Automatic annotation (TrEMBL), chain A:
Biological process terms in GO annotation: phosphate ion transmembrane transport
UniProt-recorded name of the protein: Phosphate-binding protein
One annotated GO molecular function: phosphate ion binding
Endpoints of the signal sequence: 1-24
Transmembrane segments annotated in the record for this chain: none
Highest taxon of source: Bacteria
Any one GO cellular component localisation term in the record: ATP-binding cassette (ABC) transporter complex
Lineage: Bacteria, Bacillati, Actinomycetota, Actinomycetes, Micrococcales
Annotated ranges, domain PBP: 39-332
Family: Belongs to the PstS family.
UniProtKB keywords: Phosphate transport, Signal, Transport
Pfam families found in the cross-reference section: PBP_like_2
Annotated positions binding phosphate: S50, S51, A52, S80, D98, S187, G188, T189
TrEMBL record, chain B:
GO biological process, one term: phosphate ion transmembrane transport
Organism: Cryobacterium shii
Family per similarity comment: Belongs to the binding-protein-dependent transport system permease family. CysTW subfamily.
Bilayer topology annotation: Multi-pass membrane protein
Record's protein name: Phosphate transport system permease protein PstA
ABC transmembrane type-1 domain: residues covered: 140-349
PROSITE patterns in UniProt: ABC_TM1
Chain's role: Part of the binding-protein-dependent transport system for phosphate; probably responsible for the translocation of the substrate across the membrane.
TM regions (residue ranges): 25-45, 51-74, 86-117, 137-165, 177-203, 209-228, 260-281, 331-353
Record-level GO cellular component terms: plasma membrane
TrEMBL record, chain C:
Membrane-spanning residues: 20-45, 65-98, 110-134, 140-158, 165-189, 281-304
Alphabetized InterPro entries for the sequence: MetI-like, MetI-like_sf, Phosphate_PstC, Phosphate_Transport_Permease
Family statement: Belongs to the binding-protein-dependent transport system permease family. CysTW subfamily.
All residue ranges annotated as the ABC transmembrane type-1 domain in the record: 73-300
The name this protein goes by in its record: Phosphate transport system permease protein
Membrane topology: Multi-pass membrane protein
CDD domains: TM_PBP2
Purpose of the protein: Part of the binding-protein-dependent transport system for phosphate; probably responsible for the translocation of the substrate across the membrane.
Length: 364, 362, 314
C-alpha cells in the first residue's frame, strides 16, 4: 500500500519528465534572430499593478518580446495598490498604477532605485469609462451627472422616473426597478467614476472619491468582468466599466456642456490633453489632474488615466536600460496603437507623448 | 374448521398488505401526470406564459412522496410507509444533487470545447500571444508540478499524523494536534498564500519573490488538515478486533499498522487524499500571490514565476482583451482541463485502491 | 484477576521498527504544530496594528476594528450556516443512496460522479454562479418576494441580478456537497455488516436498519465530515467574491442586493488595493475567521466526544 502514497506523485513526475523533454511550440529554445537589427537587450523585466492595464500590457509584452527575443517581461495584474507596494519594496522594476504616487509614498525611499533618487509617474494608458445599462426596450440613454449620481445613490429607483424621462423624451422607459451595479473590489475605475460625480454633481454626490465604492446601496460585483456580467444577466441594470469591455450592452451618453456625448477614444484623449498636471510635484512627474468640469462637447470627461511608475535612476543600470526601452515602447506611437487595438485604449496626445519621452530620456 | 380459516383473508401483520411490485413507479408517473395537468390548466388560463417543466417535476415529486406514504400507510402500515418515504427522499436527494453537477459540467464542456479542441491548446503557451490562439501548456505543467509537490509534502505528513492520532496518540500532544488540525481547516486560502509569501520573502530577503515551490507550500498548508482529518476518520473505523488479532499473533505494532490497519482503510484514505487534491488543485488566490502569473513556460520550481491552471482561468476571465470571446473560450477550456486532470487522478486512485485493498465482505 | 494482570505486566519487546515508526508519526504531528504556530504567529504579528488602527485607516467610515469586522463575521457564519443547512441533509441522503439504496454495480459509478464535483475549481463555480445560476434563480426570487415578502427573510426589494446570499449559499452547498458526501459514504460503507444483517433479521425495514445501525455508527463521522465542509464554506474566497453582491451590513434578508459579505471574500476583494495599515486590518479579519473556525470546531469536538463509544479504535 505504500504504492498509493508514492505512486500518484510518481506518475505525475513521469508525466512531468515526459513533458520536460518537449517544449511549448511557440517558444523556441534559441531565439531565431532572423532580422539583422535584432536588439542587444537581454534580461527579465518584472512589473506589477493595475489590472486595468492588464490587456494592454499583454499586447505590449507580446510585441516587445517579439522585437527583443532575449527579453522576458512579466506583468502581474495584481492591482494598483499592490503594484505600488511591490515596487516600493523593490519586488518589481516598475509599477502600473491607476492613481499617481501619494505624497507620503514619494517621501519614502524606493528599494529598486539608486540611493537618493526617486520615482516618477508617467501616463501610458488612457481608457474611457462607459456607463453601461441593460433595460428592455431601451437602446439609447442620455444622462446628466446629477441623474447619474442619484441613480447610484439609490434616490432614483425606477427607470420611468420623471428625471430620466425628462432627459430621454423619445425613449419608452419601463417601470422596472433600477439595479445600480458598482465594483465590489477597490478599484481605480470606481475612484475615477466617483471623482467625476463628486466634481460635476457636488450637490448630490457628497462622498469624496476613493477606491472603494462609498455607499451601501446598489449592487456590487467583482472586477470589470463581474460588473459587465451582472449588468448583462440582470434586469433593469446599470453600471460602469472600462469602455473596451462594454460589448453589446447599451452605453449611456453623458451630458457635457449642453450636449450629450458618447465615449470615443478621441474624446477621451482630448480631455486628457486639455488637463493640467498636478501641481507641487517634481517637474519630471507627469501626474495629471483630469479636467472633469470641461464644457467642450468634443471632450469625454469620464476617463481613467493609468501610469507607469518608474525610478529616475535605477540601482541596477542594466535594469534601468530595460525599463527605459520598455516604457518608451509603451508610450510611443507603436505601443499606443497596439494598446488601442488590443485593450480599447485612447492614445496619448502627441504633446503628452513628447513629455513622457523627454522624461524617459533622463532615466538612468 | 380448518377449511373456514383457509378461506378467510390473512390479516396477520407479517404478511398482510403489500403493494404490487411496480406500484412505486406507477404512483410516481401518476403524480407527474397530475401536476402536469394542473400546470397545463394554469397555462391555458393564461396565468403563465409557458409550460412549467421544472415546476411539474418538483411538485410532482412532492406529490409522490405524500401519495406513496399515504398509500403505503393504509395498505402496509406505518413502518413500511416510513421506509418508502425515506427511499423516495433519499433518491430525490441524489437526483437534486445531480442537477447542479450536470449543469456545471455541461456549461464547462460546452463553453470549453471550442478552445480545448484547438491544436495549439496543449502544445503552446501564451507567450507573445494576443487575442485568439495560444495554449495552456505552461499552466498545465505548472499545476501538475505544484500540486504534485504539495501532495508529496502533505500526504506523508498528514497520514503519519493521522496514524499518530489513532494508534499512538495519548494525552496532551494528541489533544493539541487534533485541536490545531481543526484550526488549520479554517485557514482561508488567501491567508495561506500570504503566509508562504511572507515566509519566503523573509528567508530569501526578496520582497518580490514568486516561485512554484512557494505555491506548493501554501497548498500544503491547506491540504494537510484535510488529509489528517479524513485519514483519521477512516483509521478509526478499523475494528479493534483486527488490531488485537495481529498483536495476539505477535506482530509488532508498526507492522500491524502497515499491514493490517492501513490496507483495511485504504479505499477511504485514498478517497480522502483525492478530496484533498481536488480541494487545492483549483485554488486561485494563494497561487496568484506566491507563484505569480506568467505567459511563458517554466519547469523550474525554485526559480521565477510559474503559471497554474486556476490562475490561468482567472486571469483570462478577469483581464479580457479586445477579442473577449477568445479569452472566455480559453478560460472555460482551462477549467475543463482542470476537471479532466482531477477525473484522471481519481480514476487512477480508484484502480490503485481496488488493487491493494483486502477483499472484505462488501 | 485484575491485580494479577497489573502486577505481571509483560512489556512488549521494543523493536527498532516500532521506534522509528512511532518517532516518524510524532515528528510529523509536531511538524503540523510548528507550521500552524508559524502561521498563527504570522497572523498575530501582522494583525496587531489593526487593533489600534485609527478611524481614517478604515474604508467605509468605520471607527474601529470591531465595528468593521462584525458585519463580516456575521456574513461568514450566516452564509456557511445556510450552505450547511442545504448541504448536510442532501449529502447524507446521497451517501445513503450510494451505500445502501443504489444497485451495487451502479453505486461505484455514482460515487465517482459525485467526487467529480469536488474537482471543479472555485473560479468555475464563480463563473457558473454569475452566468447560469443567478439569472436562473432571479425570476424565482422575484416571485418569492412578491408572494412571501411578508416573511422577514424574503423581504424585498428583490435583486435585479439574483446575486444574493441565498445564491451564494446554494453555490457553497454544491461546493461542500462532494466533501461531505464522499466521507459519509465511506463511513456508511464501514458499518459492520453483522449489525446490518442482525437488524434486518429481526424484521426491520431498510429505513429502520439504517436508523438503528448505520446512522448511530456513523454519527461522529457525519459531524466530522460536516465540519470539513464547514471549513471550506467558511474559508471559500473566490466563488463568494465573484457571485455575491456585498455590502457591510448585518441583514437577514436573503433576496436583496445588499448582502452581508464574508471575511474571506472581503480579503480577496480588498487585498490587491490595500496598503499600509489596510493590509494589517485585512489580515486581522483573517485572524477572526481563524477564531470562528476554532469555536465551531470545538463545539463539534464536544459533540463527537460524547459519542466516542462507537469508534473502533477505542
Amino acid at each position: 500500500m505504500n504504492f498509493t502514497r508514492f505512486g500518484r506523485p510518481a506518475v505525475i513526475a513521469v508525466v512531468a519528465a515526459l513533458a520536460l523533454s518537449s517544449c511549448a511550440s511557440n517558444e523556441s529554445a534559441t531565439p531565431a534572430s532572423t532580422e539583422g537589427a535584432a536588439s542587444a537587450l537581454t534580461g527579465t523585466l518584472t512589473g506589477a499593478g493595475s489590472s486595468a492595464q492588464g490587456s494592454a500590457q499583454e499586447a505590449w509584452i507580446a510585441a516587445f518580446q517579439t522585437a527583443n527575443p532575449d527579453v522576458t517581461v512579466n506583468y502581474d495584474p495584481s492591482g494598483s495598490g499592490a503594484g505600488r507596494e511591490t515596487f516600493i519594496g523593490g519586488g518589481s522594476d516598475f509599477a502600473g498604477s491607476d492613481s499617481y504616487l501619494k505624497d507620503e509614498e514619494l517621501a519614502g525611499t524606493f528599494a529598486a532605485c539608486a540611493p537618493g533618487s526617486s520615482a516618477v509617474d508617467l501616463p501610458v494608458y488612457i481608457s474611457p469609462i462607459a456607463v453601461i445599462f441593460n433595460v428592455e426596450g431601451v437602446k439609447d440613454l442620455n444622462l446628466d451627472s446629477d441623474t447619474l449620481a442619484k441613480i447610484f445613490k439609490g434616490e432614483i429607483t425606477t427607470w420611468n422616473d420623471p428625471a430620466i424621462a425628462a432627459l430621454n423624451p423619445k425613449a419608452t422607459l419601463p417601470a422596472t426597478a433600477i439595479t445600480a451595479v458598482h465594483r465590489s473590489d477597490d478599484s481605480g475605475t470606481t475612484k475615477n467614476f466617483t471623482d467625476y460625480l463628486f466634481q460635476t454633481a457636488p450637490d448630490v454626490w457628497t462622498d469624496a472619491p476613493a477606491d472603494p465604492f462609498p455607499l451601501q446601496s446598489g449592487e456590487g460585483a467583482k472586477g470589470t468582468s463581474g460588473v459587465v456580467d451582472a449588468v448583462t444577466n440582470g434586469v433593469g441594470t446599470i453600471g460602469y466599466a472600462d469602455a473596451s469591455k462594454a460589448g453589446d450592452l447599451g452605453v449611456a451618453k453623458i451630458k457635457v456642456g449642453d450636449k450629450f456625448v458618447g465615449y470615443t477614444a478621441d474624446a477621451a484623449a482630448a480631455v486628457v490633453a486639455d488637463s493640467p498636471l498636478v501641481e507641487g510635484r517634481d517637474k519630471s512627474d507627469l501626474a495629471i489632474k483630469i479636467n472633469r468640469l470641461t464644457t467642450d462637447p468634443t471632450h469625454y470627461p469620464l476617463v481613467l488615466v493609468s501610469y507607469a511608475v518608474v525610478c529616475t535612476e535605477y540601482a541596477d543600470a542594466a535594469q534601468g536600460e530595460l525599463v527605459k526601452a520598455y516604457v518608451s515602447y509603451m508610450a510611443g506611437s507603436d505601443g499606443q496603437s497596439v494598446a488601442a487595438s488590443a485593450g480599447g485604449a485612447a492614445p496619448l496626445s502627441t504633446e503628452l507623448a513628447d513629455k513622457v519621452s523627454a522624461v524617459l530620456a533622463t532615466i538612468k | 374448521m380448518s377449511t373456514t380459516t383457509m378461506a378467510a383473508p390473512m390479516t396477520n401483520s407479517l404478511t398482510a398488505g403489500k403493494l404490487p411490485k411496480h406500484s412505486g413507479l406507477a404512483v410516481l408517473l401518476g403524480s407527474w401526470l397530475v401536476t402536469a395537468a394542473v400546470f397545463f390548466v394554469v397555462q391555458l388560463s393564461g396565468a403563465s406564459e409557458s409550460f412549467n417543466i421544472a415546476g411539474t417535476l418538483f411538485f410532482g415529486t412532492v406529490l409522490y412522496c405524500v401519495a406513496i406514504y399515504l398509500l403505503s400507510y393504509f395498505v402496509e402500515g406505518v413502518r413500511k410507509a416510513k421506509d418508502r418515504l425515506v427511499t423516495a427522499l433519499v433518491t430525490a436527494a441524489f437526483v437534486v444533487a445531480l442537477l447542479p453537477l450536470i449543469s456545471l459540467v455541461a456549461t464547462t464542456v460546452i463553453n470549453g470545447l471550442p478552445a480545448f479542441l484547438t491544436p495549439t491548446f496543449f502544445t503552446a503557451s501564451q507567450r507573445n500571444v494576443v487575442g485568439a490562439g495560444g495554449g495552456a501548456l505552461h499552466a498545465v505543467m505548472g499545476t501538475l508540478l505544484i500540486t504534485g509537490v504539495a501532495t508529496l509534502i502533505s500526504v506523508p505528513i498528514g497520514l503519519l499524523t493521522a496514524i499518530y492520532l489513532t494508534e499512538y496518540g495519548r494525552g496532551r500532544l494528541s489533544r493539541a494536534i487534533t485541536f490545531f488540525v481543526d484550526v488549520m481547516t479554517g485557514i482561508p486560502s488567501i491567508v495561506a498564500g500570504l503566509f508562504a509569501f511572507a515566509l519566503f520573502s523573509l528567508l530569501f530577503n526578496d520582497p518580490g519573490i514568486r516561485f512554484g515551490f512557494g505555491g506548493a507550500i501554501a497548498l500544503s498548508v491547506l491540504m494537510i488538515p484535510v488529509v489528517v482529518r479524513s485519514s483519521e476518520e477512516m483509521l478509526k473505523l478499523v475494528p479493534n478486533e483486527l488490531r488485537e488479532a495481529a498483536y495476539a499473533l505477535g506482530v509488532p505494532k508498526w507492522l500491524t499498522i502497515l499491514k493490517v490497519v492501513l490496507p483495511t482503510s485504504l479505499a477511504g484514505i485514498v478517497t480522502g487524499i483525492m478530496i484533498s487534491i481536488a480541494r487545492v488543485i483549483g485554488e486561485t488566490a494563494p497561487l496568484l500571490i506566491i507563484s505569480g502569473f506568467t505567459a511563458s513556460m517554466n519547469y523550474d520550481l525554485f526559480n521565477e514565476r510559474m503559471m497554474t491552471l486556476p490562475v490561468f482561468v482567472y486571469t483570462q476571465y478577469a483581464n479580457q482583451g479586445a477579442d473577449t470571446q477568445a479569452y472566455l473560450d480559453r478560460a472555460w477550456a482551462g477549467a475543463l482541463t482542470l476537471v479532466l486532470i482531477v477525473m484522471l487522478l481519481n480514476a487512477l486512485a480508484r484502480i490503485i485502491a481496488k488493487l491493494f485493498s483486502p477483499k472484505l465482505g462488501r | 484477576m485484575t491485580t494479577a494482570v497489573a502486577r505481571g505486566t509483560i512489556r512488549a519487546p521494543q523493536r527498532p521498527g516500532d521506534r522509528i515508526f512511532s518517532t516518524a508519526t510524532v515528528v510529523s504531528g509536531g511538524l503540523i504544530l510548528a507550521v500552524l504556530a508559524s502561521v498563527a504567529a504570522f497572523l498575530l504579528v501582522q494583525s496587531l496594528p489593526a487593533f489600534v488602527a485609527k478611524p481614517e485607516d478604515f474604508t467605509g467610515g468605520y471607527t474601529n476594528f470591531w465595528s468593521y469586522v462584525w458585519p463580516l463575521a456575521f456574513g461568514t457564519l450566516w452564509s456557511a450556516f445556510l450552505a450547511l443547512l442545504i448541504a448536510v441533509p442532501l449529502a447524507i441522503g446521497i451517501a445513503l443512496f450510494i451505500s445502501h439504496y443504489a444497485p451495487r454495480k451502479l453505486s461505484q459509478g455514482l460515487g465517482y460522479i459525485v467526487d467529480l464535483l469536488a474537482a471543479v475549481p472555485s473560479v468555475v463555480f464563480g463563473l457558473w454562479g454569475i452566468g447560469v445560476l443567478a439569472p436562473l434563480l432571479q425570476p424565482f426570487y422575484a416571485t418569492l418576494v412578491a408572494w412571501f415578502g411578508w416573511i422577514p427573510l424574503f423581504a424585498g426589494p428583490v435583486s435585479g441580478t439574483g446575486r444574493t446570499i441565498l445564491t451564494v449559499a446554494i453555490v457553497l452547498a454544491v461546493m461542500v456537497l462532494p466533501i461531505i458526501t464522499a466521507l459519509c459514504r465511506e463511513i456508511f460503507l464501514q458499518t459492520p455488516v453483522l449489525y446490518e444483517e442482525a437488524s434486518l433479521a429481526l424484521g426491520a425495514t431498510r429505513w429502520e436498519m439504517i436508523a438503528m445501525a448505520v446512522l448511530p455508527f456513523g454519527r461522529s463521522g457525519i459531524i466530522s465530515a460536516s465540519m470539513l465542509g464547514l471549513g471550506r464554506a467558511l474559508g471559500e474566497t473566490m466563488a463568494v467574491a465573484m457571485v455575491l453582491s456585498p455590502s457591510s451590513q448585518v441583514v437577514f434578508q436573503l433576496l436583496t442586493s445588499q448582502n452581508p459579505t464574508t471575511i474571506a471574500a472581503n480579503i480577496a476583494l480588498n487585498f490587491p488595493e490595500a496598503h499600509g495599515t489596510g493590509v494589517n486590518i485585512l489580515l486581522a479579519t483573517g485572524l477572526v475567521l481563524f477564531v470562528i473556525t476554532l469555536a465551531v470546531n470545538m463545539v463539534a469536538r464536544l459533540i463527537i466526544n460524547r459519542r466516542k463509544a462507537f469508534s473502533g479504535a477505542n
